[in-house]
Prior knowledge:
Blueprint: H1 2-21, H2 23-31, H3 33-39, H4 43-48, H5 78-85
Helix pairs in contact: 1-2, 2-3
Amino acid sequence: MANHEQELNTAIREVLKRSVVDPDFRQLATKNSSAALEKIGRKDLANATQITFIDNYGKSQKTIVLPDPIASPELLTEEDLEQVAGGCTATSCGTSA
């Protein structure tokens, strides 16, 4: 199960990275997430999990999805917390410097 979650998170980061630089792909992701996942080569994930991408650009109200809860948060290190949070900021999620 953890492997599936890792693959899913990797695919989501790829969609996020591509949506920043490709307006047509960004529109595809918001209209048909399965097609966007297929376009990055993850057809297996496109059919396994329902994902909704929302374009917050230019809106005065933002939608922020909280991460899944952790069963034993007291056992997490700062590095673990960063991993759970995805290492994302509002402008750099899934991108590299």
